[in-house]
Amino acid sequence: MKSTSPQVGNWYKEIQQGLIFEVVAVDENTRTIETQLIDGAVTEYDLENWNEMLLEEVEEPEDWRNAYELSSEDFLNPDDTIYPEDWNGPVSMIETDIVNGMLDEL
Q: Beta-carbon neighbour count of residue 78 at 10 Å?
């Protein structure tokens, strides 16, 4: 079986043990590959061990977020502008004390 080169963000299955994991980092200087198992555990392999493993590239598992209890809202960019669904909230219902440009005296 040919060696599978690690690509950050790709999911792999280690055939002998049946482990499914995602490559989260590749360090060219130390020649290591950091992976995260579907249950959240982080592991690290050196390039030599990686090349000896029997791996196949697999699709991202549908339920991979379950271990982290993440929702789709967790993946929103916090810098994006959020527009409320209802622009007519309670603040827009407050009447001002100014009528026709004059302050209403009680």
A: 5
pTM of this structure: 0.57
Give the separation between CA 26 and CA 4, rounded to whole angstroms: 13
The DSSP secondary structure of 2-65, one letter per residue, reads PPPPP-TT-EEEETTTTEEEEEEEEETTTTEEEEEETTS-EEEEEHHHHHHS-EEEEPPPTTTT
- Cβ neighbour number for residue 67 with a 10 Å cutoff: 13
The structure tokens 């280690």 sit at: 14
How many Å apart are CA 52 and CA 33, to the nearest integer? Answer: 13
Coil vs helix vs strand at 80? coil
Residue with tokens 């043990």: 17
In the DSSP assignment, the letter for residue 76 is S
pLDDT digits (tens, 9 = 90+) for 21-43: 999 999 999 999 999 988 888 99
Give the residue among 1, 4, 2 at the shortest CA–CA distance from 58: 4
